[in-house]
Design brief:
globular; Phosphatidylinositol 3-kinase Catalytic Subunit, Chain A, Domain 5; disordered C terminus; single chain; 44% helix; 5-stranded antiparallel sheet; 21 strands
């Protein structure tokens, strides 16, 4: 209803006013009804809406671009809403938590929206209810929903006005709650609301548009529901309830409508969930459902193939521009076998979506209905590539084109200190958000203010349950892969039925599908942050915020040139939406504008090419990605040695040649897992975020889990074998480092965040470059160590961490190693800077090597032995004493006794200290006699323990080292290496992966040629002569 429209039929006005009077206890009417004149249909507001400076109408500042010739519709709606406000508002004496108090201010806009909606669906010329009219309860629910949404939009401005009124002393009341109610009383009155909207014309526009769109979208849904009675009765979207019961499922039988269950698009339209008087549920989707209908056809075909587990798709009624879908109710599994079947079907669904180039399958798009995973939204099939330009990193390119792109596998939302899986397989649990969101402190008082707090995600229905408990997805990785394999194979063997002019894929050719050029949270954040009161006075100010989309500050979109449409839709209060067609290269905006789409073939052509290319090699690659990604869903501790213990095997004599052969097998596996492009090589692997969360990713540059780890091991292997393929792979892995170091040189403010650490910082990169350059006799690689060293030195000035893994102790040890090998002055100066920081700071309270006091003490003692002073020696000894006193019961290098003992054993000054020497003698023996670790890794596995047992300062432990090394070698001969990941899933990294296992095998066979990476020692390589079965002596001298 626009400007000059009648306020609504008399029967509507009476109904709405009656609801207001009934709720006067918490609203804006007077308790005795004496203010009924305040609710006249359209009171005269002319005196409240004057002109601004220069004679401009009040609404001009709310517009962008040339001034409209006439008053915009939103301005007329705002005037009419103000006219609905009472002359004198009455505010109930009660608490107002969160934003409930502001409902009284925005209620006239919601009431006006209810008028507009009812008028649109009324019959008999607007004098009575029509076939699309709904009950008073549904109307009341609509009004309340609009009130809540408008209160959110107005909150920042109202809090700002509240603050100004309190500071200026304009509020009366004995306490903060009383003064808050006085603010509501003043602002919710007709004059107060008029003052608000004229002072903040952009806010008036935002509120009016949101209210109008809500009314129009709701009325549109009701009209469509009324018109579709006959098709709905004959369709199956209502299940058995709908068959033959035409009159029972019109608007008049609605009891509840849940609007806004997804993002709003195209003028406030969003998915709505409908409930009818008999409990039946129905989903309304205000967009074409042809793709859903054709996906159902494809699923029926897929289910007919031999070996497939049988999928279920929601039934839909496609009505062209919109449609109705079956409401899928979540339900538990009936047995453990049913849960396994659920995940087998989920794997099959993953395969089907992978070949169809589906994406965005997050936890809200999947419902666990017994043993069936039901996909409730397929709007992103045939999706174009997610980046404008293919990544230069071959591993990133492979990952973006892999099964991981679907979104069903773990996808972490990462914050500063925590992360949360948002995927369909691993997400959906109730948890705190990793990202801070705006919230309100002291709500309902005159000191109410905005704070940034941790938000909360509610539980979703995507996970199957059994006996009231949600399933652990990691336990069902095999079932997931079995389903994927079966579906992939079935599609490959029957692909002729999908391809060509008569193939099933042609059904989708003209279907509307979604194109997502940016993450939708980018738009949602812009909409939320642009309600700041500073942006609500003048539209030009808000326009500048929206214009950030043009700058790259919010990330690069998948397609450039869409910014005008994005901004226009944001001004409508919508999340911008873009669509395409599988057989077209164009995209369409939410307003219907047709534009050039991403370069390259159509979505249909890409999918057909992918299906033609399906083969066993690709399937195995996709299965490996699935297994690696599923590590993110493990609930076990990252350093807990997760996984089964290997069966006891008879030890094999750990002869150097046998150890070298085992290391070559690891090297060959690494080379085979690598992705190549031109002169560059990289791997897809696992990153351990914050030592808590595993994430599938192309390897970064760090030594712990990045590509410098495989490069270091492969260079060591090449130096011992002379095999060019290992040396070439090592060089190719390091190829991006010069560009990365140049980029970091220009981003000095970020260096502190990266740190100088030995394994997750820049010090480890400098160490790896020095080692690889020396081992391969490659002066170019060795030269790269120079800028890496300088960056590590700079990072040491700004970092906060102290440990070996990512802080100053690691920077100290790695830069000392670089200095020892190259003599670089900047390496020594950087080491000095790290040492001084460690001396000046109390050591960590934890005792471990990687992040605790043991590593700090070890690093300081190494510096003292290399030329430091008594201060460093004393501080190092004190840190080690603290570490041994607080050592835990674990055996791992990273956090346990092995690491603390290694720090003592590798420090001559510590061995001369009675307390430390006696502690080492007792606890090193305990470690030697303990059962082997459950994995082979350096970090928390057997090879980290062997570094201690084989140390030259502990000759009495040599028999234990021989026995356990032989046992590990025998096990490696019989089965794949056990990485230090949940389930021992292979990945390329150094500390927990294959590179570290290969490095450990070389250390065992050639200890005088291969220096221990865990101790930042130098490797000489080259000579393969037989050496005694001992580790190298301490080389601090």
């Amino acid at each position: 209803m626009g400007t000059g429209e009648p306020p609504g039929p008399p029967w509507v006005t009476g109904e709405v006013n009656a609801v207001r009077e009934k709720e006067a206890i918490g609203g804006t009417a007077s308790p005795d009804g004496a203010g009924s004149e305040d609710h006249a249909p359209v009171p005269d507001t002319g005196g409240l809406f004057g002109f601004r400076e220069h004679g401009e109408p009040w609404w001009v500042a709310g517009t962008v671009g040339p001034r409209p010739a006439t008053e915009p519709e939103w301005a007329g709606f705002a005037r009419e809403a103000v006219g609905r406000a009472p002359r004198s508002a009455w505010i109930a004496d009660r608490a107002y938590p969160d934003l409930t108090g502001f409902v009284a201010v925005v209620a006239p806009f919601a009431a006006r929206a209810a008028d507009r909606m009812v008028s649109a669906v009324s019959g008999d010329g607007g004098t009575g209810p029509g076939p699309a009219s709904c009950s008073a309860g549904v109307l009341d629910g609509f009004r309340h929903d609009v009130e809540r949404r408008l209160a959110v939009l107005a909150a920042r401005t109202l809090v700002s006005e509240l603050h100004d009124a309190r500071v200026a002393g304009r509020l009366t009341g004995s306490g903060p709650r009383e003064r808050f109610r006085d603010f509501l009383r003043l602002t919710a009155s007709r004059a107060g609301l008029a003052s608000l909207v004229t002072a903040y014309p952009v806010l008036a526009r935002v509120l009016a548009q949101a209210a109008m769109h809500a009314a129009d979208a709701f009325a549109e849904m009701l009209g469509r529901l009324a018109a579709d009675g006959e098709p709905l009765a004959s369709a199956t979207v209502l299940g058995d309830r709908g068959a033959g019961r035409l009159t029972d499922y019109g608007p008049h039988s609605l009891t509840e409508v849940e609007a806004g269950t997804g993002d709003s698009h195209r003028g406030g339209r969003s998915v709505m969930l409908l409930r009818f008087a008999d409990g039946a549920r129905l989903v309304y989707k205000p967009r074409p459902l042809a793709a859903h209908r054709h996906f159902d056809t494809l699923v029926q075909w897929f289910n007919s193939l031999e070996g497939t587990p049988g999928l279920r798709a929601p039934r839909v009624l496609d009505r062209g521009a919109y449609g109705w879908a079956e409401f899928i109710e979540d339900a538990p599994c009936r047995s453990a076998a049913g849960t396994a079947l659920f995940y087998r079907r989920l794997g099959a669904l993953l395969a089907l979506l992978h070949v169809l180039d589906g994406t965005d399958l997050h936890h809200e798009n999947l419902v666990a209905c017994g043993a069936h995973p039901v996909l409730v939204d397929v709007e992103t099939l045939f999706h174009p590539p997610l980046t404008q330009v293919p990544p230069a990193d071959p591993a990133a390119r492979a990952l973006y084109g892999s099964v991981h792109r679907v979104g069903l596998l773990p996808q972490l939302l990462v914050g500063d200190t925590t992360a949360l899986d948002m995927s369909a397989v691993g997400g959906g649990r109730a948890a705190s958000s990793p990202l801070e969101t705006a919230s309100w402190a002291a709500a309902g008082t005159d000191t109410m203010h905005l704070v940034r707090t941790t938000g909360r995600f509610g539980a979703s229905a995507n996970r199957p349950t059994l006996d009231g408990s949600p399933a652990d997805p990691f336990r069902f990785t095999d079932a997931l892969c079995d389903g994927f394999r079966a579906a992939y194979t079935a599609v490959r063997e029957s692909r002729a039925e999908l391809l060509g002019p008569g193939g099933l894929l042609r059904l989708f050719a003209d279907d509307e599908t979604r194109f997502v050029p940016r993450p939708t949270w980018t738009y949602a954040t812009l909409l939320h942050e642009s309600t700041h009161p500073d942006l609500m006075r003048d539209a030009a100010e808000r326009q500048q915020v929206f214009a950030l989309l043009r700058t790259g500050a919010l990330g690069a979109p998948a397609l450039a040139g869409l910014e005008d449409e994005e901004i226009a839709e944001l001004w409508q209060g919508d999340v911008p939406v873009f669509t395409t067609r599988p057989d077209f290269t164009e995209v369409w905006s939410g307003s219907g504008r047709r534009m050039r789409g991403p370069a390259g073939p159509t979505g249909l052509a890409r999918v057909e090419a992918k299906i033609r290319a399906l083969d066993t090699v690709d399937r195995l690659d996709q299965e490996r990605i699935i297994r690696t990604a599923m590590v993110s869903t493990s609930t076990g501790p990252p350093h807990g040695g997760a996984g089964s213990v290997r069966p006891r095997t008879e030890a094999t004599a750990p002869e150097p040649e046998r150890l070298l052969s085992a290391a070559r097998s690891v090297g060959d596996q690494l080379v085979s897992l690598a992705y190549h492009s031109g002169s560059r090589t990289n791997w897809i692997g696992l990153e351990l975020l914050g030592e808590r969360y595993w994430r599938l990713t192309p390897l970064a540059a760090d030594l712990a889990g990045g590509y410098t780890g495989p490069a270091l091991f492969l260079a060591q292997l090449a130096s011992l074998t002379g095999a060019a393929r290992y040396a070439d792979a090592a060089r190719a892995a390091l190829a991006p480092l010069p560009g990365l170091l140049d980029a970091l040189h220009l981003r000095g403010d970020d260096l502190g965040m990266l740190g100088s650490g030995a394994f997750s910082g820049l010090g480890g990169i400098a160490y790896a470059l020095t080692e690889v350059g020396t081992l391969l006799d490659d002066s170019r690689v060795l030269d790269w160590a120079g800028p890496a060293t300088r960056l590590a030195r700079a990072a040491s000035s700004a970092e906060e961490g102290l440990g070996v893994r990512g802080g100053a102790a690691g920077g100290l040890a790695s830069l000392l190693a670089v200095h020892r090998t190259t003599g670089r002055t900047e390496a020594w100066r950087g080491a000095e800077r790290c040492a001084e920081r460690l001396v000046a700071t109390a050591p960590p309270t934890s005792g471990g090597f990687a992040d605790g006091a043991a590593g700090v003490g070890w690093a300081l003692l190494r510096f003292a032995g290399a030329g430091g002073g008594p201060r460093h020696r004393n501080a190092g000894l004190e840190a080690l004493r603290g570490a041994v006193r607080g050592a835990g019961s674990g055996r791992a290098w990273c956090e346990g006794t092995s690491g603390v003992a290694l720090a003592v054993a590798d420090s001559p000054e510590a061995l001369a200290d009675p307390e430390l020497r006696d502690w080492l003698a007792e606890h090193a023996g305990d470690v030697a006699r303990a059962a082997p670790q459950t994995d082979d890794s350096l970090c928390h596995g057997e090879l980290g323990v062997l570094e201690l047992l084989g140390h030259a300062s502990l000759p009495r432990l040599r028999p234990h080292w021989l026995r356990r090394t032989g046992t590990l070698l025998a096990a490696a001969d019989r089965a794949q290496s056990h990485c230090g990941t949940p389930g021992h899933v292979p990945h390329p990294g150094l500390l927990t992966g294959l590179s570290g296992i290969g490095h450990g095998l070389l250390r065992a066979g050639f200890p005088d040629r291969i220096g221990p990476a865990l101790l930042m020692r130098h490797s000489t390589g080259a000579d393969r002569a037989h050496v005694p079965m001992t580790f190298s002596t301490n080389d601090q001298k």
